[in-house]
Amino acid sequence: MDNVGLKIPPYRNTWWVEYLNIEGKSIFKSIEIASIPSLIGTAREGIERVLSKIEKLMEKLDHEIPT
Fold first, then answer.
1. DSSP at 11
2. Could you name the domain of life of the organism this protein comes from (predicted)?
3. Where are the domains of the chain?
4. Residues 4 and 39: beta-carbon distance below 8 Å
5. Are 60 and 45 spatial neighbours (Cβ–Cβ below 8 Å)?
6. What is the reported pLDDT for 5?
7. Which helix (DSSP H) or strand (DSSP E) does residue 23 occupy?
């Protein structure tokens, strides 16, 4: 999944989600009924995992590099 479009329709707790391929062509459209679209939650979880990995690598480097 290369690009995602997120639009807020005029209705509360609804989201128009459109997934685009690398050429920018629409490959999937959906309407989500939720207070926050699942796409945002997934992105946050991914960022938290990456940050955790970076923190572990930094700790490892701190122990391996002589001072």
1. S
2. Bacteria
3. 3-64
4. yes
5. no
6. 79
7. none
